[in-house]
Automatic annotation (TrEMBL), chain A:
InterPro entries per record: ABC_transporter_permease, MetI-like, MetI-like_sf
Region listing for Disordered, in residue ranges: 370-391
TM region(s), chain numbering: 21-50, 94-116, 128-151, 212-237, 267-286, 318-338
Localization in the cell: Cell membrane
Domain ABC transmembrane type-1: 90-339
Protein name: Sugar ABC transporter, permease MsmF
Family indicated by similarity: Belongs to the binding-protein-dependent transport system permease family.
TrEMBL record, chain B:
Protein name as it appears in the record: Sugar ABC transporter, permease MmsG
Native organism: Bifidobacterium psychraerophilum
Record keyword Mitochondrion present: no
Domain of life: Bacteria
Membrane topology: Multi-pass membrane protein
Localization in the cell: Cell membrane
Swiss-Prot/TrEMBL GO biological process terms: transmembrane transport
Entry's family note: Belongs to the binding-protein-dependent transport system permease family.
Amino acid sequence: MDVTGTQSHGATRIKHGNERLSGWLFCMPMLVILGVFLVIPITMALWVSFSDWSGRGSPFSSHVNFAGFSNYAAVLTKPGLAQSDFGTAIRNNAWYTLLVVPLQTLLSLLLAVMLNRRILKARGFFRTAFYFPSVTSSVAITVLWMFLFGASGSINAMLSWVGINGPNWFNDPRGLIQILLGSIGISKGPSVLTQHGLLGLSWWEWLAGPSVAMFAIMLMVIFTTSGTFMLMFIAALQSIGEGTEEAAIMDGTNAWQRLWHITVPQLKPTIFTVVTLGIIGTWQVFDQIYTGTKGGPSKTTLTPAYLSYSAAFDNQEWGQGAAISFVLFVIIIVMTWIQRQLMKDRKMSRRKTAYYAAMKAETLASAQSASGLGTGQGSARSTSTGDAEHV
Amino acid sequence: MSETHTSLTPVTLRQTDEGRFRRALHSLIHGRVLLYLALAVIALIYILPFVIQIATSFKSDADAAANPVSLIPEVWTTAAYRRLFLNSDFPVWFKNSVIVTLVVTAGRVFFDSMAGYALSRLRFPGRNLIFTLLVAVMSVPMVVLLIPKFLIIKTLGIYDSYLGMILPLLIDASGVFIMKNFFESIPRSVEEQAMIDRAGTFRIFWSIVLPMARPALVTITILSFQGSWNELSHFIVSTQSPALTTLTKGVASLASGQLSAGSQYPIKLAAAAVMTIPVAVLFFAFQKRIMNTSEGSVKE
């Protein structure tokens, strides 16, 4: 007893001296790589965004001058092509985020709720089918999408079965809202909207909505992200358990009521995460644009991420490209902050709180009575699970 | 239907309860049919694109353009695949993707677990600072780093080289996180035994801790493989020579480049299909692990 005691004491002491060194040694590869390829380059790019570097030679050579805020001004305040391109990119991405985030959250929640039913057979098959698009590369999916949504592609062929003449998706720059307004005869905006604007775009252009081409990309992204978020919701649903829901079923509530009043409130933390990840992700669309549309048609699929790339690598406007990427960084931070404020646990109205409490008490009571009876579904199910375990 | 209904209804139920139960059960069965119907339709929407993709890759160009929906080619042809493998740079792209993915995956698994181990187990000055920095790093959106990465790779003189393609990808902050969390969940006693035997920290890590961490290692192996195989933007800014083009970059150039829209779809779709295969194989091999990670308590 005594011997092992001293021994382990000695060992701890030896290890303690060791730990200081090995702690740093173990972290060294990470520190070096993150430092060299993340921290230092961000500092370099920050300098470039304040310089007039043209891409030739080193950005730190003596030929490169400090340019103050001129790159930021060109993008944000000085009327011109750079500003209107940036405005267009923000417009496109804002619509994109506004539609993709709610839709992908709703769809993945819906899929998860459907798959979480205990009665469901072949759950594994459905889950695989819904998740598979998420593991494939965005390049491969974009190639596929361009075929499906081509002028004479699969989607338009299917639409023609029901007599619809589909658009030339990826070459159609018309905004969805403009199309909608056009169909009721409004083709020109009021001068209040056309005369004034922001970032080189008139309000009328801001309100045009996502173009048909952007809409096709949005469908693609929802198709590929819903599986990942579905898995997150499934995990959350399983940690909640089905107890309250079963009780509510016994109570004669319908599926819709159960979803909104029982499941969704309990999923709030997961919904928060999914929306946050959604906002961060949607403001970074790049791969799909690079592979598919390169910002066209008529710049309606241009996004800040792609604009930052093309300004620097295609047009050699390195300062502007770097400036755009830092503005984008700020946008992402601000957007997630706004979302956090909006989704913060606001005080529920008193009526709603009372309703919710009553609902809870009732489900609890009926859960007890149901388990007290010990009959029907519950016990039948538990035997079947028992069997499955034995097998 | 009504027979099962009654046989399930216990005799002890009071009248009102029975009515409730009946209604509940009815809506349950009714709901089940609807549920399967909805799921079947959605599953079809999710699967059909891939079926169309594979079917089209075996069509001729004219057939693909004329019959974009048919799942059976008029004439089966492997022309697209033959052209891809025998008359294009596709094999080079494939080779580059394999090299980069294997090295990056091996490196990430090793370095991520080393850092994760240090951050969870070793006590050393500066540990909290490192951890805080890691959290900060994780919040930087990757797409903002395109220009910065290009600048540093140019400055270090590793532009257009495997080194420039691989080095920056060798650490994945979220992988470090996964490993750290895992190491925190396993008991310390085994390591303490080894410490008594005066084994060095690295030996303890390598021959005792790592073998215990197999589940987490598999997880980050899958994530790293998938991540580096599907990586596009980093290769756009770190290379330009055709000899170093990866699948993502190459297929992207096929999609938007020289070929006019609407034509040559079989070869594009074949290329996209082939590049999906390794990830798909990995996915199906490990699907239980990928999809059940957080389902521990639930038995099916």
